[in-house]
Design a protein that fits this description.
The chain has 2 domains: about 10-285, UDP-N-acetylmuramoyl-L-alanine:D-glutamate ligase, CATH 3.40.1190; about 290-475, L-fuculose-1-phosphate Aldolase (3-Layer(aba) Sandwich), CATH 3.40.225.10. Helices cover about 40% and strands about 20% of the residues. The chain has 14 helices and 18 strands. It has helices at about 25-35, 65-75, 90-100, 130-135, 145-150, 160-170, 185-190, 230-245, 250-270, 285-310, 365-375, 390-400, 420-425, 455-475, and strands at about 10-20, 40-50, 55-60, 80-85, 105-110, 140, 175-180, 200-205, 210-220, 325, 340, 345-350, 350-355, 360, 380-385, 405, 435-440, 450-455. Strand 5 (about 105-110), helix 4 and strand 6 form a beta-alpha-beta unit. Helix 5 (about 145-150) crosses helix 6 and helix 10 packs parallel to helix 14. The protein starts with 10 loop residues before the first strand and ends with a helix. Keywords: ATP-binding, Kinase, Nucleotide-binding, Transferase. Its EC number is 2.7.1.49, 2.7.4.7.
Length: about 475
């Protein structure tokens, strides 16, 4: 019989409504807590019948039942941070305030008033009751519409968001984060107010006692944002719970917001395509990426093994600098999210051999090329670099593959990097997706061909097909 080995994790509490669709509310909060390695507890304030298209009905629980749930949790668990979501009525707001005011832990108030679908989730008479709850809170996280209600003013620009946050902070809350997903991004507004959010950028504004902080992230086109507010506030709460447990310094709130807004960008971009509506944010996006790295590492290792044992003359394709094989999980956004050969594939007396094992973040050039290609074609998951010369050019012509190319001499001075810029040039057109991308090189830079595919098997097939055609053409000469 084995001995138990319990794990200690910080505890967070969510007091919110239940979303039968699983994308928002308590369901979103608990998944987000789990993604941050925080034990989630809950007190349900209301049961909603909702899905990705909207809210069908709402049943608010009696206040004594809400109070009983909070009491049960706080009586038994050392709650390190708490958050509120949908509170629905003035009585529930007052009950929750009464219970959480006695909690010696940070409290994040997400003043849920309107669902992403536009359905109202808060009784209008409860809006005034929020002021007492906010007065004892660590952070409030209203969206633009909610900030406008709480501050009693229009919020259309980044400057408006800052002013609204300052007004809400004056109610007593320690800090206010106004999320900017709905800030005005019209051209007319940009011409009249330079502080307005750019149409391609989402700007969140955090006002603390000491300063005003802004957090900018790329806007996701046609984003599925159901549950985004819940996920953001839950991620901040999870960070506060962890940092409270670790006795973090006073800068923890800004760090928590920074990390949470970064997470939310990925959760929205790689959303769940579920239901007949816009879908739902993916609360576990980072956890899934980490889990997928193991599988992708096996895929890359399998590609390497097949190339080392290939009957096709793959060695003829290896450039002087060597070849790398890169794989990316579906949610990869950064080089650290990719897997590659630690070193390169090189030609030896024994044939093609990898000079190292496979690990995350092992490639820079090919990984950045793949990530940039995925901005245009997210289905691309695997990439490799091989040589480019006249013989390879002839083989590509003979295969009649769609081929694109870029010239390093055209790279602008402000480009983010050659691999990023080159992939953008190669994949941004409306023509057929290229099978091969040619980099003609430059002084001190070897010409190169890059192949990117959806599966590891397709990558091997493309490489062996190109190698076979190269050999066939050489035999004819």
């Amino acid at each position: 019989m084995r001995e138990p080995a319990p794990v200690t994790r910080p505890v967070a509490l969510t007091v919110a409504g239940s979303d039968s669709g699983g994308g928002a509310g308590v369901q979103a909060d608990l998944q987000t807590f789990a993604a941050h390695d925080v034990h989630g507890t809950s007190a349900i304030t209301a049961a909603t019948a909702q899905h990705t298209r909207g809210v069908e009905s709402t049943h608010v629980l009696p206040t004594d039942e809400v109070a009983a749930q909070v009491d049960a949790v706080t009586d038994d668990f050392a709650v390190a941070a708490a958050k509120t979501g949908m509170l629905a009525t003035a009585d529930v707001v007052e009950t929750v305030h009464d219970r959480l005011a006695a909690l010696d832990a940070p409290v994040v108030v997400d003043p849920v008033m309107v669902a992403t679908s536009g359905d109202r989730l808060l009784d209008r008479t409860a809006e005034r009751a929020y002021h007492d709850l906010l007065a004892d809170a660590t952070l409030a996280t209203p969206n633009v519409d909610e900030a406008a209600v709480l501050a009693d003013r229009d919020v259309d620009t980044v400057a408006d968001a800052r002013d609204a946050a300052l007004a809400i902070r004056d109610t007593g809350v320690d800090a206010v984060l106004v999320t900017g997903g709905h800030l005005n991004d019209s051209q007319d507004a940009q011409e009249t107010d330079r502080s307005v959010t750019d149409s391609n950028i989402v700007t969140d504004v955090l006002v603390t006692d000491d300063d005003v902080h802004t957090f900018e992230h790329p806007r996701i086109r046609d984003a599925a944002t159901h549950g985004s507010g819940c996920t953001l506030s839950a991620a901040i709460t999870a960070h506060l719970a962890r940092d409270a447990a670790e006795n973090a310094d006073d800068g923890v709130l800004v760090d928590a917001v920074d990390a949470a807004t970064d997470l939310l960008e990925r959760a929205v971009r790689y959303h769940h395509d579920v239901g007949n509506g816009a879908g739902s944010v993916q609360h576990l996006v980072d956890a899934r990426t980490s889990a997928d790295l193991t599988r992708v590492a096996r895929d890359v290792s399998r590609v390497v093994a097949r190339l080392e044992n290939a009957t096709a003359p793959v060695a003829a394709l290896l450039p002087e600098v060597g070849t790398n094989v890169v794989g990316a999980p579906p949610h990869a956004d950064r080089v650290a999210d990719t897997v590659a050969v630690d070193g390169r594939l090189a030609t030896t007396h024994s044939g093609v051999r990898a000079t190292g094992g496979v690990r995350p973040g092992a490639s820079s050039h090919v990984a950045r090329f793949l990530l940039a290609a995925r901005e245009h074609h997210p289905e691309l998951r695997y990439a490799v670099n091989v040589r480019y010369d006249d013989r390879v050019a002839d083989a590509l012509d003979a295969l009649d593959w769609p081929v694109s190319e870029y010239d390093r001499r055209d790279e602008p001075a402000d480009a983010p990097g050659t691999m990023d810029w080159g992939a953008d040039q190669a994949y941004r057109g409306d023509d057929d997706r290229p099978v091969a991308v040619v980099d003609r090189g430059a002084h001190g830079k070897e010409p190169m061909t890059k192949l990117a595919t959806e599966t590891p098997d397709a990558l091997v097939d493309r490489l062996t097909t190109l190698a076979d055609r190269l050999t066939t053409l050489a035999d004819r000469r």
